[in-house]
Amino acid sequence: MEEKVKILLAEDDENLGMLLREYLMAKGFDTDLVPDGAAAQEEFNKNKYDLCIFDVMMPKKDGFTLAKEIRLVNTEIPIIFLTAKSLKEDILEGFKLGADDYLTKPFSMEELLFRIEAILRRTSGTKTKEQLTYTLGKYTFDTQKQTLADSDKTVKLTTKESELLKLLCAHQNDVLERNYALKKIWIDDNYFNARSMDVYITKLRKHLKEESNVEIINIHGKGYKLIV
């Protein structure tokens, strides 16, 4: 039996905390709920967690201070911040502390789930039984190292390039729907993210241009297709 993903949830709003915990438990995550930063620190020291979700504004110890202290002992564990303030400085502060993601209240449970799953996919490449390398003509794409290599050279891809190429590979010779890709990688299918995705598609085409047996084509009104 596969071990459940264990989440530490620190939220001082009792109702929201209970609601989130119930939702995450129902989605199969083993979730511990604590009401403040100090209690969260205690639990973290006692147990082994796969992911942390911290409210920023909490009594006894705020989410940022808590994250700072946790980062001293564990640089790897993913941290998602929940905040009522959508202040740019706050968000930047969170990312400086090594946050993996950020949600501004009010948010939908589904959005939180999307983000947890996206982070776990990134961090647990080894745990899931997903394919780690793909052969694209003369190229080998390593999804974990995020590299595209042939006999002459190895290109290091950015995380977004790698995530997009991985989705294309998983759907190769089939249509990768635009909205699906946007939601999967960018979480939101708005206009700016769509433009951004076009830029990444162009970059991937450049990386693959020397292999005539591989191409990424536009399927009008639908999305893209990686033809191998």
Kindly describe this structure:
Helix 2 packs parallel to helix 3 and helix 6 packs across helix 8 (191-208). The protein has helices spanning 14-26, 37-46, 63-73, 88-96, 109-123, 159-170, 178-186, 191-208, and strands spanning 6-10, 30-34, 51-55, 79-83, 101-104, 133-136, 139-142, 147-149, 154-156, 175-177, 215-219, 223-227. The protein is built from 8 helices and 12 strands. The strands form 3 sheets. The protein has a 5-stranded parallel sheet, with helices on both faces. The chain is of the alpha/beta class. The relative contact order is 0.09. It has 2 domains: 6-123, Response regulator (Rossmann fold); 133-227, Arc Repressor Mutant, subunit A, CATH 1.10.10.10. The protein starts with 5 loop residues before the first strand and ends with a strand.
The number of helices is: 8
Alpha-beta classification: alpha/beta
Overall mean pLDDT score?
87
CATH superfamily of the largest domain: Response regulator
Count of the domains: 2
| Main sheet specs | 5 strands, parallel
Q: Give the SSE order as H and E letters.
A: EHEHEHEHEHEEEEHEHHEE
Under CATH, the topology of the largest domain can be stated as Rossmann fold
Radius of gyration: 20 Å
Keywords for this structure?
8 helices, 5-stranded parallel sheet, single chain, about 230 residues, 4-stranded antiparallel sheet, alpha/beta, 2 domains, Arc Repressor Mutant, subunit A, Rossmann fold
